Amino acid sequence: MIDPVTRFRYPEAWSSLCLSDEDRKLVEDGRAVLTSSGRALRRGFTTGTTAAAACMAAIMSLGGREVRSVDVRLACGLTFPVEVTARDGTASCFKYSGDYPSDATAGIEFRSRFIEFRDQTILDVGTGIGRWDRDTPRYAKGSPAISGTAMECILEAISTACLSHCKKGALVSLQAVNGEVIARNTLNGRIGVMGGISVLGSTGLVEPWDDHLGQDSVDRAQRAERAVITTGRIGLRYARLQYPDQEVILVGAKMKQVLDSRGDGLTLFGLPALIIKFIEPSVLVGSGYRTVEELVGSEHGARVVRSSIEKFKSMYPGHGIALIDRTGRVLGASA
Question: What pTM did the predictor assign?
Answer without folding.
Answer: 0.77
